[in-house]
Every structure is written in C-alpha cells, then in structure tokens.
Amino acid sequence: MGSISGSQMLIALGIGLLILILLILKSKLHVFIALIVSACLIGLIGGMAPVDTVKAITSGFGGTLGSIGIIIGLGVMLGRIFEISGAAERMAKTFLKLFGKGKEEWAMSLTGFLVSIPIFCDSGFVILSPLAKAISKRTKISIVSLAVALASGLVITHSLVIPTPGPLGVAGTFNIDVGKFMLFAIVVAIPMAIVCMLYGKHLGKKLYQLPSDDGESWIRPAYQDRIENDVTELSTKKLPSTFLAFAPLFIPIILILMNTVLSAAGIKTGVAAVLIFLGQPIIAVALGLIFAIYTLTPNMPRKDVLNELEESIKVAGIIILVTGGGGALGQVIKSAGVGNYIASGIASTAIPVIVLPFLIATLVRFVQGSGTVAMLTAAGITAPIVEAAGGNMVLGALAACIGSLFFSYFNDSFYWVVNRLSGIVDTKEQIRVWSVTTTIAWAVGFVELMILNIFIR
C-alpha cells in the first residue's frame, strides 16, 4: 500500500470524524444521520467507489445488528420493567441494609453495578438519584461521594457487561462467546468500580455539598462527619420483594454462563442440550423479561404494562439505529483500508495488538462523546486485525469497551445527567466529579487489560 493512498485514507478519516463532530455538536443533527454522513465521506474521500461505499454501510449496519438487535430490544424492555416496578430501588435498599451503616458509598456503587446491566445508565441514575439525595440529607454524606459511587458503578457495567448495546455489538463484531465475554467483563469491572468509589469518597470531602432543608437546592456547609442514621426505609413506596427484584436479572446471566460452561466442556446431550438452548442470549434475556412482566407488575393493569413496553421499544429503535450506524461507520473505515493502514504502523512497534482497539476507542470517545459509538467503531476497525495477528479476541473486545470510558465531558449526555442531578454547576467541579472519574475507570481497566494479556494468550 503506497504512502499516497495511506495519506489519503488518513485525511479521509480526519475529515469524516471532524464532520461527525460538527454535525452532532453544531448542527444538532441526529447522531444516526451524522454517522451515516460521516461514513459516506470517509469512504468517498478515502478512494472507495460510491457503490462500494454504500455496500459497506449496509453490510456494516446489518452485520452489527444481525446478532444483537433482538437482544437490545428485549434488554430495553426488561430495563423498563425494572424502572416502573421499583426493582431498582429495592436493589439499592437491599444493599444499604446488607452493608450496614457507614457503608453507603459501597451500597450505591454495587447498586449501580447491577442495575446498569438491564437499565441504561442515564435512566438508572435518574431513578436512583432521589435515593442518593435522601441518604445525603439524612447522613450528611456529600452528594458528590454518593453520586460518583452510583454513577461509576452504572457506567462501568453499561460499558462492559452484556446485554447493554455497546458490549453486545463488540462481542458480535469480534465473534466471541457471549458468556465468556460476560464473565471476563464482570471480573475486570469490579476493581474499576471499587477504585472509582474510593475516589468519590475522597472527592466528597473536598466538594462537600448537601441538599438544603427544603430539598429544592444545595448548600456548601463546613465539612462534618457522617451521621449514622438508618437509611433503609427512606420511602414508603411499596416495592417488590428482594427475590423478585433480583431474579429477572440473574436468570439470564446464569443461563448464559451455563451455556458457556457446558459448550466449552463439550457436554451437549440430554439436559445439557436444553440448558444450552435456554442459555442462548436471545432466549435467556427473553425468559428474564417474561419472568419480570408476570412477577414485578402483577398489580398493574396489563394495558398499562404493554404501553410502557411500547414506549421502551421506541427508545430501543433509536438505540438500534445508532448502534447499527456505528457498525456502518466501522465497516467503511475497515473497507477503505484506513484501519489496516493504522494497524500496520502500530504492528511495526512493540505495542501489543490488543492496545489497538483500546487506543481507537479512546480517540473516538474523546472526539465524539458516545461510548457505544466509540467501542463499536473500534471493534469494526480492529477485530480482523486482532484475529490476523493472533491476539486474544476476548481481550481485544474488552479493550474496545474499556477505551470507550475515557474522559466523559460536554458531548456525553451522562456527564450532564450526573452533574445536574447532583447540583454541580461549576465546569471545573463537573470535570473533577465526572470526567476524572471515568478516566480513572479507563486507566484501571487498561492496567487490568495489560496484566491479563501477560497470562492469557
């Protein structure tokens, strides 16, 4: 490949990403349309024939959604049931009671960690932030400590653990076993969440902010030690039992992991065959959804439940389009040859091949804000490169997901959700509260990735 064509492809990528940023930030064009426009520009400027550019867009869109579109729809509906039934709040109260007084940040972090598996992190924070606010008011713990613990737990599993759309798309692109990927992702996510929670505890002493007595504003009094009040009964809202709240989440996780274990062991007859079928991601998530519908909403009119599910499907449609758009962009970048061109440059160095998806996801995340688009773009570019280089595909997929956590700021909607609901209005403080937190998760994840790369080939 000549230097001229290589330079042309790099210029095409630069122009395409610049246009993507301008369309999203300046023209307020929908991100899906911006992704498709950017994909067209990269393909055409990069030297692809118009017909080939269109083929790459359609194949990238369809290829990404072929394995995950149904699961995204089911997962979004499951998350909606968790929202309207109070299951998310029950999880939080269960962990508050389990950890006991003085461990509220741990409880918030673990709540976020689990809630964001079925619920998108934005929705999860909106649902649980009133609880965090009530805890802050009652215990005199800074809302910053609680918000960082909750939000980091939410965003880490949202970025790494299936069935959220980004990790699903990455697993499909890398063509890896969903259960194996889920297991690795959970193991990697735990230290990331712990370190971010500890950072939140430290920052809460520096930015000491509490809800005012009227509950409508925020105050900055002198720092004071926490008061160990009972916070397990902060509302009188009727919530589902602990078992019913957790079951729809654990049913698909356990089934998918059993499928992985049995398939890896080569046991595929008798009962094992049934369990392998039930552990297919589409079947497992569907079973979790059905269980949730009939156990978490028994007192709601069925018509109301169906209306809520239809509303969630509207949200799923947007997510599916954006996820597919990210896949289309990645396919064009791959088809244009720019991915291979960049990879060949990295391959000539001593950098491990799994660093490539990490770096590309980091770059895309920084320039356009969406973690989902970042990881899907990185996966689309690097999956064939990691495979050709003999790298571990699961670690390559994890690298794309971890890279997507880098420095959340103005172009990330979750940045605004966390800061606004926590009463943080100063830009420097907003960056300390959330941009630094996500960067810490990104850095810890990268260290874990390098350690795993030493022992797993």
Written overview of the protein:
The structure is a single chain. This protein is mostly helical. Helix content is 76%, strand content 1%. The protein contains 20 helices and two strands. The longest helix has 35 residues.
- Share of helix among residues? over 70%
Range of strand content: under 5%
Task: Look at the structure and give the mean pLDDT.
Answer: 86
Shape: globular
Major β-sheet strand ordering? 1-2
Structural class: mainly alpha
Largest sheet: 2 strands, antiparallel
Radius of gyration: 22 Å
From the N-terminal CA to the C-terminal CA, the straight-line distance is 30 Å
Number of strand segments: 2
Query: Number of DSSP helices?
Result: 20
Low-confidence stretches: none
N-to-C order of helices and strands: HHHHHHHHHHEEHHHHHHHHHH
Write the layout of secondary structure elements.
Blueprint: H1 3-25, H2 31-45, H3 50-66, H4 69-85, H5 87-99, H6 104-115, H7 121-139, H8 143-160, H9 165-174, H10 178-206, E1 210-211, E2 218-219, H11 242-265, H12 271-278, H13 281-296, H14 302-336, H15 338-347, H16 355-368, H17 371-388, H18 393-403, H19 413-421, H20 427-455
Antiparallel strand pairs: 1-2
Helix pairs in contact: 1-2, 2-3, 2-14, 3-14, 4-13, 4-14, 5-6, 5-11, 6-7, 6-8, 6-10, 7-8, 7-19, 8-10, 8-20, 9-17, 9-18, 10-11, 10-20, 11-12, 11-13, 14-17, 16-17, 16-18, 17-18, 18-20
